[in-house]
Every structure is written in C-alpha cells, then in structure tokens.
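quick one, 359 residues, struct below
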Amino acid sequence: MNRFLISILGLLILFLGCTKEKVGYDPTPYTLKIPSHFPQMPIPADNPMTEEGVLLGRMLFYERKLSLDYSISCGTCHAPDASFSDPQPFSQGVGGTIGTRNAMALINLGWQTSYFWDGRAQTLEDQILEPVPNPVEMHLQWKDAVTRLKSDVTYLNQFYKAFGVIDFDSTHVAKALAQFLRTMISGDSKYDVMYKFANNIPLTAAEVAVKNTVTAEEWAGYGSFQDLNGADCFHCHNGVLVQVQKFANNGLDAVFTDLGRGAITHNANDNGKFKVPTLRNIVLSAPYMHDGRFVDLDAVIEHYSTGVQHSATIDPLMEFASVGGVHLDEEERNQLKAFLLTLTDYKFVTNPDFKPLNP
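---
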C-alpha cells in the first residue's frame, strides 16, 4: 500500500472513529438575502453557496489556528465594529510584523471584480489564499494550516458536510471563507432609502418613514455628491455599491512611494492608482486611503477640497485637480459629511450571523 493510500486510510479511520455524530454529505442550498434594489450576485459555478459551506466559512473566519502562533484570525484585522476593517492604519501580523496598507472593509464583496488595493487577485477565492502564508500577516504555510484543521474532528465533520471530502486542502478553506464573505451584504442604510426614492424605486411603509427623517442638509449633501460643480464624488462612488469597479489616482501624492496598480501591471500609466473602495459604512472604517493617512472624514473632505496633488496619472475625472480640489466652503463640507453619515448600516455591523459562533 503506497504512502498516499495509507494517509487517506488514516484520515478515514480518524474521521469515522472520532466523530460523535452521523455525518453525511447532503448540502443545503443557501439563499442569499439580496436587497431588492441590488443586482443579482454572480456566484462561481465551482463554489455554489450552501448552508454548510457558509457555516464552515464563518468558523474559519475567526479561527486562530490559521496563524503561525495561534494569535490572530481573519477577524482580527477585519473587526465587525470597524465595518470589518482595521481601525489601525496598518494591521499587526504574527510576531508584531506590520503591513504597508490599510485593511479594506469587507462589504458586498460578492459584486467585486478584483481584490486588494492593487487588484492582484481576480476572484474572492484567490484573494483568501494570500493572507495565511504572508509573512507580515498570518505567516503559516497552507500545508501546516490544513494539518491543524485536520487534527480537529469538528472541522473534519464540517468539511465533509460542506464539500463531501475528507482529505480537504487550502482550496476548500478558501471556498468556505468565500461563501461566508458573500453573505456579508450591506444594503439597509438611510442612503438606500434616499437612493431608491431618487431613482423612483417603490418604498415600503417602513422606508417611507425613514425617508421622512432625511434632513435638508443630508439631501443637499447627496446633491453635492453627484454635482460636477459640487463635491463631484459620483464618478468613482456611484450606485448601490457606492463604488465604481476601477483603479484611480485620486491625487494623494505628486511622487509615489507605493506604485499601487502599477506594481502589478508594470505599466507606468497605472502608477499611483488604487482600487476605488466602497463608501458604505465609511464613518465606521477609519482611517482612510490605502495607507490610512486620514484619521477622520473631515480630513478626507479637506483632501478633496484643497489637498489634491497633481501627477501624470491623476484620474481625468478629478476635474479640479489643477487647482488642488473642489474648494467646498464650510457649509458644503458639513452637508457632504451629513450625507456620508447616511451610508451607515448598523444592522450590518451588528448582524449576529457575521459574529463568532462562540465569542
């Protein structure tokens, strides 16, 4: 009997001998709760959503066994209270190592077309494979991480329930985590009511009540947000995702210390460009930009008002870059900030389905 068959037999004996429950493979399709004004979410054909897969992904998201010294999990750098981002400019990995970019908020990932600030991953499953072996993050080789999971009968059971496999590997871990992350949908903010009303989408009775609480200042900020001669934000932050799927140089620097997308494409025209993030729950996900340089919304608004730096790759839609920004006055800044606060979805960050199973 060769070594591979012996290994499989050993796993099978462990699986059958240690389990205290009758484990079968009969996955239950998972029904995503997608808001009525959202498009359907594209789900990869090779990773259909199941109740068992989502549960496993939730377990793995908060699993410290995936880090070298058992000190951190995915949820460490993507905390619920911070809209699943990191309140520090740079996350701290195993052994106190510090990264070089701010952890992005995990919101509505199922509609994204690229991942990371530089877009180096094309699928959510591919993105998930990177942090575990990264030496400045979890710093654990996947083969060792999988060995740890296989030593836990609870995981042996759950991987079999989710995927019908005993000898699972990193691709199964990534698929389970991706299923869980796709359930993390935010679409229940005051902004959603304003968006539906502005686009003639019928409101429920509860939404009408919310619409009646929208202040004149918030409506003015919404108008400025979409006005070419106002805050002029809508070119990059639009629609239900409050985000356009693109990479842009938004005038942070005249000289780049981080090439962003350019480091991936090796195209000088992409230097200084970063993935446009969603503005949903923006007030909860400070600090801001790829390097966390802005500590609050006032600093962000100040940047776009007077702090824009011109460079060769500045986004052409930054129409006022040559004069440093859109030059909002104090009232306009207050209106814009009031609108940005309407993007907060407290139900999303307090949803018990996104929290650890055993906090």
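The CA atoms of residues 100 and 147 lie 30 Å apart.
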